[in-house]
Design goal:
single chain, 4 strands, globular, four-stranded antiparallel sheet, alpha+beta, 3 helices
Length: 97
Amino acid sequence: MKNKIITSAALQINPEFINEVLPLAIETRNHILLEEGCESFVLMRKKEEPNTIVIFAVYTSKEKYDWHLEQHYVKTFFAFLNDKLAAAPEVTYLEEI
C-alpha cells in the first residue's frame, strides 16, 4: 500500500541515562504494538553504540500514525527523553519500492 507511513528513528541517549530509558522504551513499545494500524514496531539498539536506540515502525496510514503520536504513552516517553538525549533524534521517513 502506497499510503503506509514507514519510519526509522535513531535516539542517541546520554550513557548515564540508558538504564532508565530502556525499561520505559520497552513499556511504550508494548502499548504501541496494540495500536490499530501499527503493522510493525521494532525497538533495537546499535551493537557498536549501545546507547543508541533505533526504532523501525510501519503504520497503515497517515491518520493512524498521527493518532499514534497523540497517545499519552508516546507523549510521556518523549517528555521523559527531553533531557536524556545526547543529540536530536534522527527520523527518516521511508517508502516501499
